Amino acid sequence: MKEKIDQMIDSLKDDLISELREVIKIPSKKGKATSDAPYGEACKKVLEKIIEITGKKGFATKNVDNHMAYCSIGEGDDYVCAMGHLDVVDEMPGWKYPPFAGEIHENRMYSRGALDNKGPIMAAFYGLYALKKLGVNFNKEFRIVFGSDEESGMADLKYYLTKEKPPIMGFSPDNKFPAIYGERARAKVALRGDFDHFEDFLNKKIFAGDPIINLGINISDQDFGRMILRGKKIFRDKDEYGIEFSLSMPICDKDYVLKQIEENALGLKVSLISYEKAFLEDKNSALVRILNDAYNDFVGANEKPTTTTGMTYAHFCPNIIPFGPSFPGQNGIAHLPNEWMDIDDLIKCAKIYAYAFYKINENFNKGE
């Protein structure tokens, strides 16, 4: 089957690129909400476009009130899915090519959304489409779910889960390979006070040595590793001075972390601005095993499942994990000017996703 998938995806390459460009040309940044466009007209338009594209290829489609949309094949009470997003962040200045044109230069497609996440979710769709063309008999319903508010809080997914039950298995092509079985907790913390205390804190706790050790939060675990502090931002609010920073956290007690920061705040007031708990799947689960084995088998690797500092739909949708599109050793460029995706990687992802869907389907054939 690997050879058949390889040949089929290669035959669909031009169509994939062409239709990805159609989706990319819609500047689907979050806009003003209206009664039928909860994230703005551009986000509504991109969902309508994806329904048009997938419907023409013989898939059943559904628009979930312009929050998310999906196409599907196969039948059953439960479904498997790939879930990605079609909304994008602002293009930012500094582009050498138009940010919503999908131009290809030196075998790279440059555009906002090329990598995050229009390219990868279209690759997942074409992976499923390739299996359809190969005549695979699907033993469950298989969906490709397209979101439109991932970049701004994932309200689209939260709405979707009030209208549709969650999948029993699936992935989000919005991070890296191989299988990702966990995403760290995240916290944003602020400390503020008068200038003297603020200056003392910066000099002794932030700029002198390792802030993680200085703040008493040098915590690690076996899945995520060590606490990470980043995104430092200094501010002034009337007569108070302060600093905000983000923590990328292993599994630990949030309240203990805050207490440790308070004990090392040198007179500053500490406040928790936001917090998202960690997502952690059993790394020996069937889902992690099937996806990781599919990746290794298709590319001839021996990678182990891993975790990430990123946050995808998998953080809030049961029974899915991040899976691609970036390969080991590649650096993240998703939100930067001149975002791009290598065409060879796009096609390779489509093949891996097709094979992953095939192996999931085989798993159900065995009654597992």
Provide a descriptive summary of the structure in words.
There is one protein chain. The radius of gyration is 22 Å and the shape is globular. 44% of the residues are buried. The protein is α/β, with parallel strands linked by helices. Helix 1 (2-11) packs across helix 10 (343-365), helix 2 (13-24) packs antiparallel against helix 4 and helix 9 packs across helix 10 (343-365). The strands form six sheets. It has a six-stranded mixed β-sheet with strand order 1-2-6-3-7-18, with helices on both faces. The protein has helices at 2-11, 13-24, 41-56, 118-133, 155-163, 195-206, 211-214, 254-263, 286-299, 343-365, and strands at residues 60-64, 68-73, 79-85, 103-105, 108-110, 141-147, 169-172, 175-176, 180-183, 185-193, 220-221, 225-226, 228-237, 240-249, 269-276, 279-280, 306-308, 320-322, 325-326, 340-342. Strand 1 and strand 2 (68-73) form a beta hairpin. The mean pLDDT is 96.
